[in-house]
Specification:
Blueprint lengths: L4 E5 L3 H12 L2 E7 L17 E8 L2 E7 L13 E5 L2 H12 L3 E7 L7 E5 L5 E6 L2
Parallel strand pairs: 1-4, 5-8
Antiparallel strand pairs: 2-3, 3-4, 6-7, 7-8
C-alpha cells in the first residue's frame, strides 16, 4: 500500500515539478503529456504538452499532479503540504524558494512547537507549511 498526494495545476504542472526538483531536491518521475494519452483527440493543440499525470518524490514522499483545463481548475484548499526539515536554516531556505512569486501567510519564526515554522502558498497555488523539528 502507498499513500501520496495529488494536486491539480492550472496548466503549470511541469513548471511546478521542475521548480520543486530544483528548490527542494525532488526527483521527478513520470511526466505524461496529453499528446501521449488516449484523451489527446479531445484537447486543443495548445494543450497537447500539458501534463495528464506527473509525479515527483520530495524528501521520500510522492507528490502527484496534473494540469486541468482553466474552467475546471480550483485553487487547493482545506490542506497544506507539510515539509519537515532538520534545521532552521533549511526551513528559511525552503521558505525563500517557495515564497518567490507566492503569497506569504506566516513568515519563518519560532513557535511553541518549533524553533522555525512558516506558511506559504507558492506561485503555482500549492499551500505549504514548512517546519523544523519532529
Amino acid at each position: 500500500m502507498s499513500l501520496s498526494f495529488h494536486i491539480d495545476f492550472n496548466g503549470q504542472c511541469q513548471e511546478a515539478f521542475e521548480f520543486y526538483a530544483a528548490s527542494l531536491q525532488g526527483t521527478i518521475g513520470a511526466m505524461l503529456q496529453v499528446k501521449d494519452s488516449p484523451i489527446s483527440q479531445s484537447y486543443p493543440s495548445d494543450w497537447q504538452h500539458k501534463i495528464v499525470h506527473g509525479n515527483i518524490s520530495i524528501q521520500g514522499v510522492e507528490l502527484a499532479g496534473a494540469d486541468v483545463k482553466p474552467e475546471q481548475y480550483q485553487k487547493p484548499k482545506g490542506f497544506y503540504l507539510l515539509l519537515g526539515l532538520n534545521t532552521e536554516d533549511s526551513v528559511k531556505s525552503a521558505f525563500s524558494q517557495l515564497s518567490a512569486g507566492g503569497e506569504v501567510i506566516f513568515p519563518p519564526q519560532k513557535t511553541f512547537w518549533s524553533p522555525c515554522f512558516a506558511i506559504v502558498i507558492d506561485r503555482f497555488g500549492a499551500p505549504w507549511k514548512v517546519n523544523c523539528g519532529t
